[in-house]
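Weekly sync, protein design subgroup
Attendees: M.S., D.O., the rotation student, P.L. (late)

Item 1: inverse folding check
M.S. brought a backbone from last month's batch and wanted to see whether the design step gives back something sensible before we order anything. D.O. pointed out we never logged the input encoding, so this time it goes straight into the notes. Structure tokens as presented (211 positions):
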């Protein structure tokens, strides 16, 4: 395992190579440290479950670099989703979409849906662009434990070492991303997080689409 700080383009290129090779890297986002693997590689996704001790019935969200990459993962971006994307991306809002059938069942836990966001983090975006594919975005902690904001205690939680850790020090205290499901007639808030319900309701005001 390599432990790197203040990543430059060379570091991100190496991290991208590891992701493409089916390895797992730890990287910072604007909220928490995440476990990054190739979201299209079933074997790499299984490593995430092992490292976190995560139930395989729990789907894993992903980050993408742009709308083109998003559309490679999802069946549809409906008008409600478009409104949320325009208001909150890049940023800590994970949106649930209908997943393309070509995605690994391990990623979606067989639910046929996928949570995606574009992060407001140059490092996270740089990793995705270097890997040239969507990257998993689950927090870098043992399942059931509090997600760490720094490396302290994080590596001791994980069942296996990641191939690389991009360490930028302690992150500002933040909640995880808010998770919403806009596939029905209303926006369902599945997890309260960094973006509050009030902000979402303000964006959806007048549409009758917030629950």
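Designed sequence read out in the meeting:
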């Amino acid at each position: 395992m390599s432990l790197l700080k203040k990543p430059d383009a060379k570091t991100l290129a190496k991290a991208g190579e590891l992701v493409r090779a089916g390895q797992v890297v730890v990287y910072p986002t604007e909220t928490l440290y995440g476990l990054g693997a190739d979201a299209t590689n079933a074997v790499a996704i299984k490593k995430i479950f092992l490292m976190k001790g995560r139930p395989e019935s729990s789907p894993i969200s992903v980050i993408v670099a742009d709308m083109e990459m998003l559309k490679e993962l999802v069946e549809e971006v409906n008008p409600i989703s478009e409104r949320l994307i325009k208001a909150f991306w890049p940023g800590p809002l994970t949106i649930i979409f209908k997943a393309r059938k070509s995605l690994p069942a391990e990623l979606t836990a067989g639910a046929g849906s996928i949570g995606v966001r574009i992060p407001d983090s140059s490092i996270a975006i740089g990793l995705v662009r270097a890997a040239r594919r969507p990257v998993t975005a689950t927090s870098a902690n043992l399942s059931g434990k509090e997600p760490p904001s720094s490396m302290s205690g994080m590596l001791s939680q994980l069942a296996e070492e990641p191939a690389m850790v991009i360490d930028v020090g302690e992150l500002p205290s933040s909640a995880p991303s808010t998770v919403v499901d806009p596939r029905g007639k209303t926006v369902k808030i599945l997890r309260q997080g960094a973006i509050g319900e009030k902000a979402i309701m303000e964006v959806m005001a007048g549409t009758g689409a917030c629950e």
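Discussion: The helical segments are 9-20, 42-52, 67-73, 79-88, 105-108, 122-131, 154-157, 197-204. The chain has a mean pLDDT of 91.
Action: P.L. to compare against the previous round before Friday.
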